[in-house]
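Q: For a teaching handout, I want to show students what a protein-ligand complex looks like in C-alpha cell form. Below are the inputs, and the small molecule is nicotinamide-adenine-dinucleotide. Please produce the holo structure.
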Amino acid sequence: MNIMEVSRTTDAAAAKRSLNGRVAVITGSTSGIGLGIAERLAAEGAAIVLNGFGDPREIEMTRDRIAFENNVPVVYSTADLSQAAAGQELISFAAEAVGEVDILINNAGIQHVAPIEDFPMAKWDAIIAINLSSAFHAVRAALPGMKRRGWGRIVNIASAHGLVASPYKSAYVAAKHGVVGLSKTIALETAQAGITCNVICPGYVWTPLVEKQIEDQARTHSIPRDKVVTDILLKAQPNKRFAQTDEIGALAAFLCSESAASITGASIPVDGGWTAQ
Ligand code: NAD
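A: Here is the structure, written as C-alpha cells, with nicotinamide-adenine-dinucleotide included.
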C-alpha cells in the first residue's frame, strides 16, 4: 500500500466515525466512567470537553493523549459543578473553545455513606448540587443551542440507585432518582426538536468512586475490604462482576448515534441484573 492509499484508508475510516464533527461535553471526565465515555466519544470522532478535578499535570497528559490517539480537539474546563453558575460556564467555555455543544453527558458525581441521623447536612447539599442540580443547570444552558440546530444528545449518568434504594445512601439515592425524573421531563420537552435525553443506570463499575466506597463501608460496618466487595457491594448484583468503564462508554456512544434517534426518556440499567430482581 503506498502513502496515498494509506491516507485514503485513514480518511475513509475517519469518515465512518459516528460522531464526526460533533462537540461533546462530559462532566466529571477526569476519571472513572466520565473518562471512559470521553475516550469512546473521541474514538467516534467527537471534539471533547473534559471537566473535573485532579492533578493538573495528569489531566493535561490525558487531554493530550485523547487528542493524539483520536485526532480530535480535546479541551479541559475547571468548572466546579457544585456551583449553580458552572453549568452555563461549562457550555459557554465549550462553545468558545471547540464549538456549540451537540452532546452533553452529565456524569459528575460524588457519594457519601452514612445513616440518615448521622448524615452530614453539608454532604447532603453537596450531593444534591453535584449529582442532580448540575445536570439541570448544564441542560438549561445547552438546550437553546441544540434546539436552534435541531440536533442534540443528552445522556445522564444516574445509577441502579436511580431505580431502587439501598440503606445509608439517602442523598445519593434521592439525587439519582431525581436525575431519572428530570431526564423524562427533558425528553418530553425536546421530543420534536431532534434532541434525545436518556439515562444510563450502572450497577457497580470499577472506578475510584467505588474504591472509596469500599473504605467508607468497611468503616461503617467494621468489616474487612474483601467482605465489603462480596457481602455488600456485589451482593445485589446477580452477575457478581464489576462493569468496566468502556462498557458504559460504548452505550453512551450508541445513545449519541443516529441509530438511537427514537430512544428518548429511557433509563437503561447496566447492572448485571440488579434491578431485575
Ligand atoms: P469518579 O470519582 O471516578 O469520577 C467522578 C468525576 O466527577 C471526577 O472526574 C471528579 O473530578 C468529578 N467531580 C466531582 N465533583 C465535581 C465537581 N464539583 N465539579 C466537577 N466535577 C466534579 O466516579 P465514577 O465512579 O466514575 O462515577 C461517575 C458517575 O457515575 C457518578 O455520577 C456516579 O454516581 C455514577 N455511578 C458510578 C457507579 C460506579 O460503580 N462507579 C455506579 C453507578 C453510578
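A: Two things your students might notice: The chain has a mean pLDDT of 94. Residues 121-149 form the longest helix (29 residues).
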